[in-house]
Specification:
This protein has helices spanning 2-10, 12-22, 36-39, 41-61, 108-164, 170-225, 361-364, 371-405, and strands spanning 64-69, 75-77, 83-88, 95-96, 101-105, 227-229, 234-237, 246-247, 255-259, 267-271, 284-289, 292-304, 331-337, 351-357. It is α+β, with helices and mostly antiparallel strands. It folds into four domains: 1-61; 63-71 and 263-312 and 326-408, Efflux pump adaptor protein, beta barrel domain (Elongation Factor Tu (Ef-tu), domain 3); 75-103 and 227-258, RNA polymerase II/Efflux pump adaptor protein, barrel-sandwich hybrid domain (OB fold (Dihydrolipoamide Acetyltransferase, E2P)), CATH 2.40.50.100; 108-219, Helix Hairpins. The chain has a six-stranded antiparallel barrel with strand order 1-10-13-12-11-14. Strand 11 and strand 12 (292-304) form a beta hairpin. Helix 2 packs antiparallel against helix 4 (41-61). The longest helix has 57 residues, at 108-164. The chain is rod-shaped.
């Protein structure tokens, strides 16, 4: 409407003034409802052409969209395993800090695993003490075996001398030789037993204790998992969990945690695909939000997504027909406040209307710019004022449209 009024002031009005004062034609006489088109045909035709051109120019170089939202991500409250709720620590809409407990699952199985692991550690410690006692006993057995071996050797040497004088029987000397071999084997067996005990004390039992301690640590981890804690600071929403409920990681989450700063500093807008060559990071933008009425928020384009989400292809067991992707998507643009605190009062999830403005200041500052291009770029920058006025009218009418016309 503003464009039409502006263009009519430049086309229809001069045409009428010429007809009125140059040709003497008056409204209600020569110019009436039936002859208006014929008399003012040049002005009306020029007005329509100029209006369409102006609207195209404005909406292309200064794009607008109503698909603007303060998007935020929620955190699903879920345990790492299926279980029955044993205790609940928070309620709906309660604010929590990172690490605060939310609820606890039944931990009878984990408690039993911890007791078993601790008893296994005590058992290994007892085996270690027994092995140390056995090691002392083996030391005594070694001394006893070595003493018996030495006695056998001395007796053999003595009777071997007597054998030269035929004072003893050869059979007795041979028996002593066999005894010595047996005593030597006994000493080796006892020493081997000592080595086995030392290996058991230094390697086997510590390894078994380490395994038991690892099992205890694993059991403690499993026990800690039964207490679900807040990963980030935020507000608990849709948390209707009660003692006795069964929480399933795949089917039934416990609730939703909304982080404190979620959706507080960025607006995400969806502009038309035709604006892909115009939207650039650094463009100045403005927005008005339902959650913050009668307010124009200065913004800046910080990022322009270089792909259109509508063309996303995910491999499946069926071939994709391109016709299924024919619905045009939007160009995703990230907007942040130009001044600190610009979006502080905008509730996350608010719907907004946003304008982005093309700025040709650098091109106009070029000393080699042509006259026609200079005039054209000035027109492009100037008509952005029209869109800014439209946004301010929308900001004033938005509460009326929301509260009165739609009955919300």
């Amino acid at each position: 409407m503003l464009e039409l009024i502006l263009c009519s002031m430049l086309t229809v009005l001069p045409d009428y003034l010429f007809r009125r004062y140059a040709q003497g034609k008056r409204i209600g006489y020569e110019i009436n409802l039936y002859t208006m088109w014929y008399e003012l045909r040049w002005g009306i035709t020029a007005c329509l052409v100029l209006t369409i051109s102006l609207i195209t120019l404005i909406f292309y170089f200064h794009p607008s969209t109503k698909s603007v939202t303060a998007v935020f991500r929620t955190v699903t409250i879920l345990p790492e395993a299926v279980g029955r709720v044993d205790e609940v620590y928070v309620g709906i809409n309660q604010k929590v800090a990172a690490g605060d407990p939310l609820f606890r699952l039944d931990s009878a199985e984990q408690d039993a695993a911890i007791v078993t692991a601790r008893r296994r550690i005590s058992e290994v410690d007892a085996e270690l003490e027994v092995a140390k006692t056995e090691l002392i006993t083996v030391d005594g057995q070694i001394q006893e075996a070595e003493s018996a071996y030495q006695n056998a050797v001395e007796e053999y040497e003595m009777k071997a001398q007597l054998l030269k004088t035929d004072a003893v029987a050869r059979r007795e000397v041979e028996r002593l030789e066999t005894t010595i071999e047996g005593r030597r084997g006994a000493v080796a067996a006892v020493k081997a037993n000592k080595t086995t005990l030392e290996t058991k004390i230094s390697t086997l039992l510590p390894a078994q204790k380490a395994s038991a301690e690892a099992a205890l640590a694993q059991a403690q981890v499993d026990l800690d998992k039964t207490t679900v804690r807040a990963g980030v600071a935020g507000t608990v929403q849709q948390f209707t969990l009660r003692v006795g409920d069964v929480v399933n990681t795949m089917i039934r989450p416990a609730g939703i945690l909304v982080p404190e700063q979620a959706g507080r500093g960025t607006l995400i807008a969806g502009f038309g695909q035709i604006e892909a060559q115009v939207m650039k990071p650094g463009m100045i933008a403005e927005a008005t939000c339902i959650g913050k009425p009668f307010t124009i928020i200065p913004l800046v384009v910080t990022e322009v997504q270089d792909v259109i989400a509508a063309g996303q292809l995910r491999p499946t067991d069926q071939l994709i027909d391109v016709q299924q992707l024919a619905k045009p998507g939007t160009l995703t643009v990230f907007l942040q406040p130009l001044f600190p605190g610009g979006l502080d009062d905008v509730p996350p999830g608010s719907s907004c209307i946003a304008n982005a403005y093309t700025n040709n200041h650098d091109a106009l500052a070029d000393p080699n710019i042509g006259t026609l291009k200079w005039a054209y770029l000035h027109v492009v920058d100037t008509v952005g004022l029209v869109h800014a006025m439209i946004l301010r009218l929308q900001a004033m009418l938005l509460p009326v449209q929301t509260l009165v016309l739609t009955g919300h």
